[in-house]
Every structure is written in structure tokens, then in C-alpha cells.
Specification:
The chain is α+β, with helices and mostly antiparallel strands. The protein contains 14 helices and ten strands.
Length: about 425
């Protein structure tokens, strides 16, 4: 049975001696009912949030959040352009632990409702860039998880094996994911400090001159060193704002350019469906398995025969055709674990079109009600099309129509040079 706000508020006085609670309210969160939470006003003028796991499975995640917040020293917080919750105290609550943090003001915006352009979208990109720029020592010193690109790749491969073992996932998706794992270029990335799976609900906004900007970031339980793309996977559920978020992220990042970050982000987004299936299968929950299979079938219909990395299986001729179609680097351009037990079916459903769903309720809002807030509106329909990397896709040009007329010495020399270049590339690809 869920704990009442009054019960949670009583634990505040135990966690914070010499303070009194003068007001309490309900705080609902996008945690799929995994936590009991309340907001309390103290007699010293502070407002705090108290949370306790609703079941034993949520306890490790809350413990991880406590460890992460302890790693955010004042010096670390000074490097960030936004606030993170400050751990104020802990106390026992029955057979569980209650955690008290300071309340961060602001509002959240559902992923599907994030508008494009300057404001919320660009501020999220800037916030993620700042987070990923933190020194890796912050995580290592606290003994938090550190995962190399190869370890991330191996985790993905093992997850796909577990999905295949259920014999319930479409073979088309298994093959699609294995081709992505086999694409070496996809896994050449620079590890960074990550939230390990940020989402739209992680960001709190406030308005300045009627323009929203990120003032706070929540959900720190996945703090680790890993693949920055894990914090971008949710962009698949924000189709209108995704490009502007990513553009701002790249523009404010001092990291080396990672042209395949969005491809990995798309892979991780699809693997959330896979984890939901594995979770249901291993828990013996036929209802979850059925739900996951429906989501995977819809995903399979949406992606059709596309690859995560579309040039991963190109032949020599296609590689040569692609060579002149790679865009120039933009001026100024620069984890979540595969074994998490945190799932939100409503969020997974955002990556499937409503036309392909059997249950339109899977697109329910993931917004938060902050004491006096009204419920958020349901999500809009969104597309399941893979993240747009069309600039890298192979396009068959009509070379005959665009070629310069032959018969001149200049044209012959150019043709000879092109043939020599193609031959060199063929030799390089065959090595």
C-alpha cells in the first residue's frame, strides 16, 4: 500500500533533526509507481522532497541516486549551468529507507510537446553538453560505474542474446541489432560522464523573458562514465525538437565530433523494447511479454529493412558512391546500463506510431505534478522512423547526366584521376 504524504512527512523530522514540518503535499513523479513521494514545507522556510521505494526492486535505484548526489560536491556543481538536488538526509521507514533532498522549482515538458527552436530545445542541448564535459574523475573517485566503449558494445550483444532466447522478438529486429553490433565504426566513441539514460522528465524549466531554459536536472541514479548517446536515446520520442536539441548539444560540446552518436542513441531506444521483453520473460509476467511483443512488432513494421548504420554493409561500389556524399564537419562541432531494472511502458510506447499500436493509452504523459499542478495532456502520436542520418545514406546519382562531356584533354585527365582514385579506394577496402 502506498505511503501517505503525512507518513512521508513524519520521516523528514527523523532525517533532519531540529526542524519542523509546517505543510505537506503530494508529489507524483514519472517513475511508473516505483516510489512514494511527497513535498514538505519546513519551519525554517525550506521546501524539501522525501522519497521512499514503493517496492524492494526500486530500493537499489534510490541507493544509487544517493551515491550520485554525494559525488556532486560544491566544486562539481559549480561546473554545471543548472541545479541538481542536494542530499539533505536519510532515515529508516519501515523496512525501507526514506531520502530527503531539497525541492527544485520549475516545470517539466513532455517529450512529444517540446517545441523546436530557441528555448527549451536548445537549453536541453546545452545542459547535456555541460554534463558530458565533467571530468571523469568525479565518477571514478566515488566508485561509480565506469564502462568503456567495448564494454558497452559487449553489454548490447549480451542483451540481444537474451532477447533472442525468449523466442518472442521478431527475427528482423534481432538481425538489425546484430548488424549494428558488428559495425565497428559505431562503437568508436569517447566515454563521458553521463546520467545513464536522461529523458525529457529529467529537465526542469523556468522562464526568463518568456523563454524557457533548464534550471534543474533530476534522475541522477545512473550517473556513470559511459556512452554519451545513452542520454540522447529519448530524442526518438521528441520528433519536433530532436534536431534542435542535438544541434545545440554539438555546438556547446568541446568533445571530439561523434557522427554516429544519434545512430547509437536510436539503437538504445529500440533496445528499451527489448529490455521490457526480457524483464517480462524473466519475471514470468505474460502481460508484460504480450505488451512488449506488441511494441516490438510495431517497431519492426516501422523500421522495415533499414539498418541502424545504413552504410554498415555497403559493398565497394556503394562505398565509392558514398565517398563524395559525406557532409563537411559543422563549424564549431565537436550510460545507461543494459541491465537496468527501471522500465516505463508509457515512455517505450512513444517510439511507436499510434496507427501501429493496439492500445492508444501507451502514449500517456510522463509529466510531473508539482503539488498544485494539474495533470499533463497525453502525448501526441510520434514516428518510429530511425533517427535521420540521411546525409550519410547512399544515394544513387545519375552520373551520366551530370558528368562533364568527354573528348577534351581536361575531361580525360579528370576521368583518369577519378579511375585512379577509385582503384586506390578499392585496394584499401580489400585490405
Amino acid at each position: 500500500m502506498a505511503r501517505s504524504p503525512l507518513t512521508l512527512a513524519a520521516s523528514v523530522t527523523s532525517a533532519l533533526p531540529r526542524v519542523g514540518v509546517v505543510g505537506v503535499g503530494i508529489l507524483t513523479e514519472a517513475a511508473a509507481g516505483r516510489y512514494d513521494a511527497a513535498v514538505a514545507d519546513l519551519d525554517d522556510g525550506r521546501r524539501v522532497v522525501v522519497r521512499a521505494p514503493a517496492d524492494a526492486d526500486a530500493a537499489p535505484e534510490l541507493a544509487a541516486e544517493v551515491r550520485a548526489l554525494r559525488a556532486l560536491t560544491p566544486g562539481v556543481r559549480g561546473l554545471l549551468p543548472f541545479r541538481a538536488p542536494e542530499l539533505l538526509g536519510e532515515t529508516g521507514l519501515g523496512d525501507a529507507r526514506a531520502v530527503v533532498v531539497d525541492f527544485l522549482p520549475g516545470y517539466r515538458v513532455d517529450a512529444a510537446h517540446l517545441p523546436p527552436g530557441r528555448g527549451a530545445a536548445t537549453s536541453i542541448g546545452e545542459a547535456l553538453a555541460a554534463l558530458h564535459a565533467l571530468p571523469l574523475s568525479i565518477v571514478r573517485t566515488e566508485g561509480l560505474p565506469v564502462r568503456t566503449p567495448q564494454q558497452v558494445r559487449d553489454d548490447v550483444a549480451r542483451l540481444i542474446d537474451r532477447v533472442e532466447a525468449t523466442r518472442a522478438a521478431p527475427a528482423q529486429l534481432i538481425e538489425r541489432w546484430r548488424r549494428a553490433v558488428d559495425a565497428d565504426d559505431l562503437w568508436r566513441f569517447e566515454s563521458a560522464v553521463v546520467l545513464g539514460g536522461a529523458g525529457a522528465a529529467s529537465f526542469l524549466f523556468e522562464d526568463t523573458d518568456a523563454v524557457p531554459h533548464v534550471t534543474g536536472v533530476l534522475d541522477w541514479h545512473g550517473l556513470s562514465v559511459g556512452d554519451p548517446a545513452t542520454d540522447l536515446q529519448w530524442l526518438a520520442s521528441a520528433p519536433v525538437a530532436a534536431d534542435d536539441i542535438y544541434t545545440a548539444y554539438v555546438a556547446h560540446s568541446g568533445r571530439a565530433p561523434d557522427t554516429l552518436a544519434r545512430s547509437r542513441a536510436r539503437l538504445y531506444a529500440e533496445l528499451e523494447f527489448a529490455k521490457w521483453l526480457v524483464h517480462g520473460h524473466e519475471a514470468g509476467r505474460d502481460d508484460i511479454v504480450s505488451d512488449a511483443v506488441g511494441l516490438l512488432d510495431s517497431l519492426a513494421a516501422g523500421v522495415r529493412d533499414d539498418d541502424i548504420v545504413r552504410y554498415a554493409a555497403l559493398g565497394v561500389d556503394d562505398a565509392i558512391a558514398l565517398l563524395d556524399r559525406v557532409p563537411d564537419a559543422q563549424a564549431g562541432a565537436v550510460d545507461t546500463s543494459m541491465h537496468t531494472d527501471a522500465y516505463d511502458p508509457a515512455e517505450l510506447a512513444l517510439w511507436v506510431t499510434a496507427d501501429d499500436q493496439d492500445d492508444s493509452d501507451k502514449a500517456d504523459s510522463l509529466g510531473v505534478e508539482l503539488v498544485d499542478a494539474a495533470g499533463a495532456a497525453p502525448y501526441d502520436d510520434v514516428s518510429t522512423a530511425p533517427i535521420d542520418i540521411s546525409a550519410w545514406a547512399v544515394r544513387k546519382d545519375d552520373e551520366a547526366a551530370s558528368a562533364e562531356p568527354a573528348g577534351t584533354e581536361t575531361a580525360d585527365a579528370a576521368a583518369d584521376a577519378e579511375r585512379a582514385s577509385d582503384a586506390a579506394l578499392r585496394r584499401w577496402l580489400s585490405e
